[in-house]
Amino acid sequence: MKMELIVLAILVVFIGAFAYVSSTGNHEWSGSDDQAKDTIDKLTGGTYRPWAQSIWTPPSGEIESLLFALQAAFGSLIIGYFLGYYRAMAKMNVASSSKSKKET
């Protein structure tokens, strides 16, 4: 019950902060690639030319977003699997050590 209240409180704070920030001001959302390009342009006066080009460009922004979401989901699955694996191993070690203490 205590954990549910903590999660609920965190959700309420997050939603409140998001609603406040979203409703105030004029926000422009851009990716880190755009910010890096703008910074490089400022530092070099617009004279820098990239030395590498993309091998493949997605046909639309939606496909690019889909690929990014799939990459994030795949990474989350891998991290979640290993965290679960090591947590289960730790529980097994605790259970086996307590079982061996009872036998002696």
- Please state roughly what percent of the residues sit in beta strands, choosing from under 5%, 5-15%, 15-25%, 25-35%, 35-45% or over 45%: under 5%
Mean pLDDT: 88
Roughly how many Å apart are the termini? Answer: 37 Å
Q: Which parts are unreliable, with pLDDT below 50 for 5 consecutive residues or more?
A: none
Q: Outline the biggest β-sheet.
A: none
Estimated structural class: mainly alpha
Helices, by number, come to 3
SSE arrangement, N to C: HHH
Specify the overall morphology.
Answer: extended
Key phrases:
extended, 104 residues, mainly alpha
Provide a descriptive summary of the structure in words.
There is one protein chain. The chain is extended and about 75 Å long. The chain has 3 helices and no strands. The chain has a domain at 61-104. The chain is mainly alpha-helical.
SSE blueprint:
Blueprint: H1 2-23, H2 32-44, H3 61-103
Give a summary of the structure in a few sentences.
This protein has helices at 2-23, 32-44, 61-103.
